[in-house]
Specification:
mainly alpha, 69% helix, rod-shaped
Length: 129
């Protein structure tokens, strides 16, 4: 909001004295800043003075930075593992998923060994009869 409001004010001040300006009202300035900061750029409003173009450069740079940061936050939230949902609440730490898989495999191996021992005892009992 700060970029939109200050950009609109600055471009309106820069363009107010130009005879061929097409940004002549606060509404025009807000529209131009919003279209510019979102990188849509319809081209229906544009600065014609050097000072107005300088404001445009600042607004464009801020728009790319702000929307890039927003996209990064969203991607991080969507792709990051949930905190505390793994065994022992460690899934949020690096390598925790691999450690959880190793723990599960180790437990499965122990269960398989116990089952094999039981089967061997049952076979032995059947032979002894």
């Amino acid at each position: 909001m700060l970029v939109i409001e200050s950009g609109a004010f600055l471009v309106l001040m820069a363009e107010r004295g130009a005879p061929d300006a097409n940004i002549i009202s606060a509404s025009d300035a807000m529209w131009w800043v919003y279209v510019t900061i979102t990188t849509v750029g319809y081209g229906d409003r544009y600065p014609v003075t050097n000072a107005g173009r300088l404001v445009g450069v600042m607004v464009m740079t801020m728009g790319v930075g702000l929307f890039g940061t927003l996209a990064g936050f969203i991607a991080n939230k969507l792709l990051a593992p949930e905190e505390g949902t793994g065994p022992g609440g460690t899934e949020g730490t690096p390598g925790a998923g691999f450690a959880a898989i190793q723990n599960t495999l180790h437990e499965q191996k122990q269960q398989n060994e116990q089952l094999l021992e039981r089967l061997n005892r049952i076979e032995q009992q059947l032979r002894d009869r």
